[in-house]
Amino acid sequence: MLPVGIRRALIAVVLTAALAGPSGCGGSDGGDQGSASDAARAYVDAINSRDFDRVCGLLSDSYKARLKVGSNCPAFLEEQTSGLPRSKLALISVREQGDHATAHIRSHANEHVAGTIADESALFVRDQSGDWRLTAVTSYRGK
Prior knowledge:
By secondary structure, this protein is α+β, with helices and mostly antiparallel strands. It has helices at residues 4-14, 36-48, 52-58, 61-67, 73-81, and strands spanning 87-97, 100-109, 117-126, 132-139. The protein has one domain: Nuclear Transport Factor 2, Chain: A (Roll). It has a four-stranded antiparallel β-sheet. A hairpin with a 2-residue loop joins strand 1 (87-97) and strand 2. Helix 2 (36-48) packs antiparallel against helix 3 and helix 3 (52-58) packs across helix 5 (73-81).
């Protein structure tokens, strides 16, 4: 089991219950992303459709290393999120500035659980290939 701080960070990334996926994650699984909004939408859709392969493809290599996901990203995410209440994500907004972007994402638990709504900021960076990758998830700080 991961330390509490890293586990909370991972929970913030996934914000949903056990999303199983059959294979490892590669850097090119992010798909066609013309904008940060496309990447943020792809992330929200991947979480909501329980597609761990897709989620892993959207994470930057540095973020995966920081989370210590190992060689099988989907299995790691499944293990670290097992037992969490199921949630649905909603993309609220995306603010793109050059090669960096911040997406405001809201999670709403499908079960009656204390604190069922959570807002997070998903930070994206455009990599050298031009694809947008999720590099961090933090508490949302709206303006």
